[in-house]
Amino acid sequence: xxxxxxxxxxxxxxxxxxxxxxxxxxxxxxxxxxxxxxxxxxxxxxxxxxxxxxxxxxxxxxxxxxxxxxxxxxxxxxxxxxxxxxxxxxxxxxxxxxxxxxxxxxxxxxxxxxxxxxxxxxxxxxxxxxxxxxxxxxxxxxxxxxxxxxx
Length: 151
Known about the structure:
Layout: H1 7-22, H2 28-64
């Protein structure tokens, strides 16, 4: 069945043939610039995606893995009301035991006997012992209190 000569169809065919005759290839420099721009966009997108994946993995690991227990109450360190004087150095000359009695002097032990342990004369107060959220760095009486002024 032959189709009648359609005016609109003939106009489209004429425009297509005109466009084909005027069409030219794009310059090589233009094609290269477009390719470089597309490659830079692709690399930037991949870098952002990788950063998001690493950040999400780190956040998930921090939440899911067991870590340090969080304390609800901060530990309070007592500050001295006034700075204590500097302790005087202990003389280093050894005391001799009395040869007549054979008894050791106070604070000394006889050879062959274990030293007696006595509680320290002045122990700093123990704060937060046994309380929930107590700090692991509480003072334990083994070191003298700090003589630094409070900040």
